[in-house]
Amino acid sequence: MDSKKITLIKDLKLDRDDYMIKVRIIRMWKLTNFANRNNVFEIDMILMDGERGKIQCNVEAPFIQRLGKLLEEYAAVYIEKPTIGLNVGSYRNVENQHKLYFYYTTKVSRCNDFNGPVHGFSFATFQSLMENSIPKDVTFDIIGDVVNLFTDSSNNPTQQKKQKINLEVQDLQGNRVFVTLWQDYAKQMMDYVNANPDQTTLSIIL
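^ thats the sequence. predicted structure below, dont judge the formating
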C-alpha cells in the first residue's frame, strides 16, 4: 500500500482530495439513536500519523455502512481520498484548523506496519490547569494519583441515576486538581475500586 505516496497530516490542503494518509485511530465515538443504541448514525474519530500529527474525522451514516467495520479504536488504517474541510466548531478535539470527512470516493484499508505511538496522549500540567492557561476549545490529557474520592450520596432518585464521582488528583510536584467523572466513567472507576479494596495507590489517566 505504501507504493502510493503517503501524506502527513500537517501537509493536508483544502484544494486537493486525492491524498492517502497512514494513521492510527486513537479516539473514536459512536453517536447512536436514543431509541435504538445499535443504530449508529455518526462516528467521530481522532486520527494520528507517525509524526504525532492529529486531525479530527467525521463519518456519516451512508459511509458507516460501507466502511464502518474497518474503524476500531487503536486500529491502524490507510485512508484514501477523504474530503478536507475547515474545523470551525467552537469546540475542537485537536489543535488543527482542518477536519476530515468521508465521501463516496473514500477508501479505507488495514495497515499492518504503523510505527507511531498507540495512544497519542497530550498531557497538560496541573500548574497550567491552576493558572487557567490552557485553551478552552481543545482537549487534553492529565495523569496523577487519586488522593481522595467522593461519591454522590444524594437521596434524590433523579440524581442517583446520574452517577457521579469527584476525585482529587495529585501530580509529582504535589499540585492537586479536582476531577468529576460521570456515568460510564464513574462506573468504571467504582467497579475498579470495589474490585481492588486493598490497593493503596491509584493512578489515573484522563
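The chain has a mean pLDDT of 86.
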